[in-house]
Known about the structure:
Blueprint: E1 4-10, E2 17-25, H1 35-48, E3 53-55, H2 63-71, H3 81-93, H4 101-120
Parallel strand pairs: 2-3
Antiparallel strand pairs: 1-2
The structure holds coenzyme A (COA).
Amino acid sequence: MPVGTATAWFHPEDPALGRVHWVAILPELQGRGLAKPLLAQVCRRLRELGHTRAYLTTSTLRVPAICLYFTLGFRPDCAGEARRRDWRDFLGRTANEPRAKPLRDHLAQLDDATHNQSRKQP
Ligand SMILES: CC(C)(COP(=O)(O)OP(=O)(O)OC[C@H]1O[C@@H](n2cnc3c(N)ncnc32)[C@H](O)[C@@H]1OP(=O)(O)O)[C@@H](O)C(=O)NCCC(=O)NCCS
């Protein structure tokens, strides 16, 4: 019986870069630990196909998916003001979500680093 879906895809311009795409677990089966092994298998498949790094795109509104990706080693892209704003909104939205804490801590560190760097500028 199918429980979900995920795709190992590729970046059209960078052969080193694999893409994780179309990830979902059936709603009635979510929250049972099925997504982690599914995603791990996708990452193994990307490696078999010769990709040395992986990326994905999603919306910062998808909190469960973002927490999942972070636990598997994906890190947020905070380049550009629009993305930084989205991640700040994410921080606000997940203030009471314990599973988002590791990512929240990571984002806070990035924010500190940016702040310290800008203070060093003459
Ligand atoms: C994202 C999704 C695939 C997770 O599937 P799942 O089988 O429920 O996830 P798991 O039970 O394997 O949990 C794995 C991790 O996901 C995160 N997670 C799952 N549900 C979460 C929730 N409600 N809130 C925050 N984090 C959550 C946690 O990091 C969890 O790890 P943990 O259990 O060690 O804390 C599922 O919620 C889904 O299909 N969502 C709809 C489709 C979607 O948004 N796809 C992503 C598009 S980019």
